[in-house]
C-alpha cells in the first residue's frame, strides 16, 4: 500500500484540536501558513516560556491514521486534526523513521522529521485517558510515545488529502527519534 495524506488541518489560535481544511500551504523554514505553530522560532507556549529564541523544530505535526484505528479499538473516537496534527497520513510508520528522514508531501512540499511529539495533558480534554492511551512501554520498559512526529519544512507547497507521501532516508539518518 502506498503512503498518502488522509487529511490536512490548521488553526490560527493555540489549542489542541485543529479543523480539517481542503488544503494547507507549507512555507520553507516556517511551517503551515496560518497555523499558530508556524515560524522560524519556537511557538509552542511552554517552550516559548523557557527560551523564545530557540529554533522551531515543531513547524509541522504529523500523525499516522493507523493510531486512530488503534485508539478506536480501545473505545476512543479520534479523527484527523483532533490531536492537533497538521497532516494525517496512512501507509507509513512515522514512528519508526530515523532522525533527519525526509518526506515529500504532494508535488513539491518536503519536510525533515525532527523528533517525536511528546503528548500532553491537553489530549485528555478531547477524551479522558487519551494521553495515557498514546503512551506505552516497550519490552525493556522504556516509554513509547505514539502521538506522531514533528518536522521542519524544507520546501514549500500545497498539501491536500489524497496526496502521495514518499520517504527519503539520508545515509547519515540512523538515530532513533526522540521527543522534541
TrEMBL record:
Domain MOSC: 18-168
Entries under Gene3D superfamilies matching the protein: PK beta-barrel domain-like
Family matches, as InterPro entries: MoCF_Sase_C, MOSC_domain, Pyrv_Knase-like_insert_dom_sf
GO molecular function, one term: catalytic activity
Positions of transmembrane segments: none
Protein name, as recorded: MOSC domain-containing protein
Organism expressing this protein natively: Parasphingopyxis marina
